[in-house]
């Protein structure tokens, strides 16, 4: 039996209080195993991003339990949670969120340096990852000199630098054209396999969902269905 | 990681040059003023010390009459005192140099034989090395000047130099150039040396000495020798180490320096506010980056360190710029400070900037500490940004901090503390408590800002939607607007209080001059106008002047410094009967005319307010005053209002002065003309009559007043500089505030633009908010400034200087300042408003 990477047990999340409270997640339970590529799909406002935020530990549930890589996030103090984000979780955002002042290479090596990796090693790893995502020739470029697809590939490389057990991506192709989207989807699938990472991504895109190993459908803050996907070989 | 941080930091600076420049400039300005004042203070003291070292040489002890010439006989007593290895006499006089307008010499007559072991200088005679001083013996009119002054005056070895002494012009020949050694380097360039016999003859001081320098025997205890000397000499003689002489000057300058230092610290505080705003703007602008770094795993402390580090890098550049800027400032103010100190305290000529590694370290440290303290709070705020919040522009809305009732309580407590500390400063001391009073008064007003803003926001109602929105924004942005208004309030309060204080002081001095300085004409040696009281008038002048038929009465004035209860005070002799009849001297208690008339010839003195406060004496008290004839008891007949000196002055009638000081030469004559006489006509005829006898100046009452206010205004030069900085702070504070707000409201402005509000509408909304901010800060600033001016006038002034200044409001400030501040606010907010109105709507509306 494969190891459980993430577990959500009757998790609810509301924002605001009293009459103004908005419920983003309602008693959601979900298990994600090692090596899985899970796509969260559903209309806007269905709770995909909120669920990802909880898995990433950048938000806390109102109710229920979130366990990631064996750690109950609710029990972790702020410092440990940050440490966990650094070493065990990789995040990819819709709008790439690269530091505009740093080059592609510097952006990718950033988690390594934050984690205390030797600068030389971090640089070597960053270069290797940039090569893997096909951007070795862009390593000295800054975000403003790159296309959206390229920036997202840099963000993927950055998420993988410390070989996290769980990679989360929030609409990673939402801001890309179809060609760039396809490259990023392939990248997720290949790198996931190659690095043994567990991937959870939120998406509207059918193409992305089709590339995953399991689709979790959400609506109004609830999981309304799950189905395995047999993706065609690239 | 450090390299990456520095790279990131460098690129941040390059990406936002305007913001970085504002931070760098504010730190540079603050540090410049701080180090400028520090260097000025140090340079003044170093110049004094070097001059003391130059004249004292290697002496361990000095004996002087403190301005009163002493008999040569004393030299014998000094030499015969146990423990004295050698003693050398000096005769000193400050004289103007003929043909070189405004130039003067501090002439030192030295005994060429006994002076040898004391020397801290060598004399150069035209390139050839000199060890003998033959020229001084060959020609008693030989003189030595510093090379700098000789160069400045364009005189060479062998040239004739004519100086204006008390007894008339005296001719000398330049034979040597002086080169100072050791600690004497940096001594006043006006020092000149000549033979003592020649000095005594030229200055009319035959048989008299100004000072005796002593060298102690090996192993002799300076304290014991000084005590032994004191027991053998008259009590008015001062026995002290040369360092003691420097310390007395340093002590005199203490209050002057303290004021300058306090002002320079204020400039640092002002800079801190600007840094705070700049870092805050950076935090708001880079929330996304903070969120990203946090989600990548950077700890809160790391985020705080990042912003602190960045502020320190930018601040460090500011410090680097501020240091040379401060030196430039100090250099440009050297002349002003020299003149102010000479006019108020003692003759001083600062030639060079005195800069030590410690002062650079202190200024740099103070600058960086100010940066770190100012950046601490916004950096802390940055560390509190939640990643999930940072990625949602929707949550970037302003968070208003509510002003609860405890703010009013805190303001009230501050007011109470201000009053309490003020009372303590006045009644028990120390005077520094008065600064605490000012600080709490200001703090009290700043605590009222959120409450006042809230009340205004709630009470103002508009029909039109845009003003309503502007008002709503204003109320919801109190976390930034409140701080900006509080900082502007503080800056404006300082501006207002200093303006009111100077105005009140000026007005008080003007009234006092009108009442007290009533003579129509004054006659004094020209040197006294240039270098403080240095020379006396010869009897011939007095006779010529008092025999004039147009003169109804003549007041004789002489002042000197004496050591009273171990502190320097001024003693001034005048004719009490004349003062009783003509002068408008006003006393704290009693009728001045009666008091002065009754005190004529008696052992009674009238002391000024500073004296009374400093030595805790009241009307009717008896005080022991050291005189050349021993300590004598005098009755304090009255306490008079006076603004000439803060270290104490007493007036004594000539009858008593002559009796105890055995001196009859006056330094200034005040002439009261008969009714109907034209002062200008008399002045011209008198000037013609006495010109051939020497270098005397006859000046009118109007000219005295003009000179007094010239010195007065000069003394407040640094204060004026601070007022200028205040206005810069106002402008940059508002600018940065609106840069921050325009980033925070990006999304909301996007919404407004998308529903049809035009660019001009957005601009008008933001500029309108800035105008409101200007209105509130100028009104509160005026109120706080008025309160602060009362503290300055009624607490700080009396507790530091013992002066009673009548508080007077320059009313035009009330209608001049608010429009100026509002206009500054509008102009400063215009650019951020314009930029904000031009943001791409789609980008502003984008949601994560």
How does this structure look, described?
The complex is a heterodimer of chains A (234) and B (848). Chain A has 234 residues and is α/β, with parallel strands linked by helices. Chain A has seven helices and ten strands. The model of chain A has no long low-confidence stretch (mean pLDDT 86). Chain B has a nine-stranded mixed β-sheet, with helices on both faces. Chain B has a six-stranded mixed β-barrel with strand order 3-4-9-6-8-7, surrounded by four helices. Chain B has a two-stranded antiparallel ribbon with strand order 2-10. Chain B has four domains: 1-50 and 245-391, no CATH class; 61-240, no CATH class; 405-512 and 708-848, no CATH class; 521-676, no CATH class. Chain B is elongated. Chain B is of the alpha+beta class and 848 residues long. The A-B interface holds A 49, 53, 56, 58-59, 78-79, 82-83, 85-87, 91, 93-95, 97, 99-102, 106, 109-111, 113-115, 119, 158, 170 and B 1, 3-4, 7-8, 11-12, 15, 288-289, 291-300, 302, 386-388, 391, 846, 848.
Give a quick precis of the structure.
Chain A is an alpha/beta fold and 234 residues long. Helices cover 35% and strands 28% of the residues of chain A.
Kindly state the percentage of residues in helix of chain B. Answer: 55-70%
Q: How many domains of chain A? A: 1
What is the distance, rounded to the nearest whole angstrom, between the alpha carbons of the first and last residues of chain A?
A: 27 Å
Spatial order of the strands in the main sheet of chain A? 6-7-8-3-9-10
Please, what is the average pLDDT of chain A?
A: 86
Biggest sheet overview of chain A: 6 strands, mixed
Q: From the structure provided, what is the oligomeric state, counting identical versus distinct chains?
A: heterodimer
Here the CATH topology of chain A equals Rossmann fold
Q: Note the overall shape of chain B.
A: elongated
Count of separate DSSP helical elements of chain B: 30
């Amino acid at each position: 039996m494969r190891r459980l990477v993430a577990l959500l047990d009757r998790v609810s999340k509301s924002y605001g209080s009293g009459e103004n409270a908005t419920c983003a997640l309602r008693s959601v339970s979900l298990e994600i195993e090692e090596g899985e590529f899970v796509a969260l799909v559903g209309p806007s406002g269905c709770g995909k991003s909120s669920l990802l935020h909880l898995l990433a530990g950048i938000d806390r549930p109102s109710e229920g339990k979130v366990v990631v890589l064996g750690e109950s996030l609710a029990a972790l103090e702020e410092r440990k949670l940050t440490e966990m984000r650094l070493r065990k979780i990789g995040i990819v955002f819709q709008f790439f969120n690269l530091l505009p002042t740093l080059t592609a290479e510097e952006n990718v090596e950033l988690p390594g340096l934050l984690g205390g990796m030797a600068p030389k090693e971090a640089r070597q790893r960053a270069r290797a990852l940039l090569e893997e995502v096909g951007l070795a020739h862009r390593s000295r470029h800054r975000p403003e000199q790159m296309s959206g697809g390229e920036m997202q590939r840099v963000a993927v490389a950055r998420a993988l630098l410390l070989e996290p057990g769980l990679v989360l991506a929030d609409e990673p192709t939402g801001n890309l054209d179809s060609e760039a989207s396809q490259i990023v989807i392939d990248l997720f699938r290949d790198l996931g396999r190659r690095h043994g990472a567990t991937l959870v991504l939120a998406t509207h895109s059918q193409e992305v969902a089709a590339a995953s190993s399991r689709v979790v459908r959400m609506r109004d803050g609830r999981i309304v269905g799950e189905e395995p996907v047999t993706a065609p070989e690239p | 990681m450090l390299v990456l941080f520095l790279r990131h930091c460098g690129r941040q600076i390059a990406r936002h040059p305007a913001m970085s420049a504002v931070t760098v400039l504010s730190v540079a300005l603050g540090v410049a003023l701080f180090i400028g004042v520090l260097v000025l203070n140090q340079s003044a003291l170093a110049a004094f010390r070097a001059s003391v070292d130059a004249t004292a040489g290697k002496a361990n002890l000095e004996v002087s009459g403190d301005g009163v010439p002493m008999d040569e006989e004393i030299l014998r007593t000094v030499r015969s005192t146990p423990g004295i290895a050698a003693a050398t006499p000096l005769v000193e006089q400050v004289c103007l140099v003929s043909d070189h307008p405004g130039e003067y010499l501090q002439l030192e007559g030295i005994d060429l034989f006994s002076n040898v072991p004391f020397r801290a200088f060598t004399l150069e005679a035209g390139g050839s090395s000199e060890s003998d001083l033959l020229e001084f013996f060959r020609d008693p009119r030989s003189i030595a000047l510093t090379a700098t002054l000789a160069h400045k005056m364009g005189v060479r070895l062998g040239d004739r130099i004519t100086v204006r002494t008390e007894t008339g012009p005296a001719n000398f020949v330049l034979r040597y150039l002086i080169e100072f050694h050791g600690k004497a380097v940096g001594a006043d360039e006006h020092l000149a040396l000549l033979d003592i016999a020649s000095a005594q003859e030229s200055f009319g001081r035959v048989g008299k000495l100004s000072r005796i320098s002593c060298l102690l025997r090996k192993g002799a205890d300076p304290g014991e020798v000084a005590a032994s000397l004191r027991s053998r000499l008259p009590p008015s003689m001062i026995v002290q180490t040369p360092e003691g002489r420097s310390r007395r000057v340093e002590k005199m300058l203490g209050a002057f320096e303290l004021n300058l230092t306090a002002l320079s610290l204020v400039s640092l505080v002002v800079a801190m506010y600007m840094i705070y705003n700049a870092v805050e703007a950076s935090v708001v602008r880079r929330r996304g980056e903070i969120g990203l770094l946090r989600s990548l795993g950077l700890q809160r402390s790391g985020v705080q360190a990042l912003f602190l580090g960045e502020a320190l890098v930018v601040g460090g550049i500011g410090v680097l710029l501020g240091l040379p800027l401060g030196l430039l400032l100090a250099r440009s103010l050297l002349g002003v400070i020299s003149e102010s100190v000479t006019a108020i305290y003692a003759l001083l000529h600062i030639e060079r900037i005195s800069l030590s590694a410690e002062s650079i370290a202190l200024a740099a440290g103070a600058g960086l500490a100010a940066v770190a303290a100012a950046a601490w709070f916004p950096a802390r705020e940055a560390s509190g940004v939640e990643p999930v919040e940072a990625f949602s522009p929707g949550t970037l809305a302003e968070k208003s901090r509510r002003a609860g009732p405890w703010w009013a309580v805190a303001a009230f407590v501050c007011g109470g503390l201000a009053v309490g500390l003020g009372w303590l400063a006045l009644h028990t001391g120390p005077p520094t408590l008065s600064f605490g009073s000012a600080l709490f008064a200001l703090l009290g007003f700043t605590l009222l800002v959120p409450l006042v803003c809230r009340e205004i926001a709630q009470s103002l109602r508009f029909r039109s939607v845009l003003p309503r929105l502007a008002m709503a924004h204003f109320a919801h942005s109190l976390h930034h607007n409140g701080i900006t208004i509080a900082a502007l309030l503080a800056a404006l309060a300082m501006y207002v209080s200093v303006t009111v204080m100077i105005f009140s002081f000026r007005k008080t001095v003007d009234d006092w001059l009108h009442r007290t300085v009533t003579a129509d004409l004054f006659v004094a040696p020209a040197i006294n106008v240039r270098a403080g009281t240095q020379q006396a008038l010869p009897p011939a002048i007095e006779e010529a002047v008092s025999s004039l038929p147009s003169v109804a009465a003549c007041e004789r004035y002489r002042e000197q410094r004496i050591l009273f209860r171990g502190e320097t005070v001024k003693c001034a002799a005048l004719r009490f009967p004349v003062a009783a009849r003509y002068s408008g001297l006003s006393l704290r208690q009693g009728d001045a005319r009666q008091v002065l008339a009754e005190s004529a010839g008696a052992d009674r003195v009238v002391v000024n307010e500073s004296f009374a406060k400093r030595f805790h004496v009241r009307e009717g008290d008896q005080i022991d005053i050291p005189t050349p004839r021993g300590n004598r008891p005098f009755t304090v007949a009255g306490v008079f209002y006076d603004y000439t000196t803060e270290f104490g002055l007493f007036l004594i009638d000539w009858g008593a002065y002559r009796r105890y000081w055995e001196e009859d030469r006056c330094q200034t004559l005040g002439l009261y003309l008969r009714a109907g006489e034209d002062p200008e006509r008399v002045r011209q005829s008198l000037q013609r009559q006495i010109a051939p006898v020497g270098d005397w100046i006859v000046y009118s009452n109007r000219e005295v007043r003009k000179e007094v206010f010239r010195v007065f205004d000069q003394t407040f030069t640094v204060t004026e500089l601070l007022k200028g900085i205040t206005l810069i702070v106002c402008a940059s504070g508002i600018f940065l505030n609106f840069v921050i707000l325009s980033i925070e409201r990006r999304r909301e402005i996007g919404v407004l633009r998308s529903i049809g509000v035009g660019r001009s509408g957005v601009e008008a909304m933001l500029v309108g908010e800035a105008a409101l901010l200007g209105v509130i800060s100028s009104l509160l600033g005026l109120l706080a400034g008025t309160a602060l001016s009362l503290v300055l006038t009624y607490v700080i002034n009396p507790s530091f200087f013992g002066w009673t200044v009548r508080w007077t409001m320059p009313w035009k400030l009330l209608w001049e300042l608010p429009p100026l501040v509002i206009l500054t606010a509008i102009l400063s907010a215009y650019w951020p408003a314009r930029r904000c109105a031009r943001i791409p709507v789609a980008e502003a509306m984008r949601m994560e």
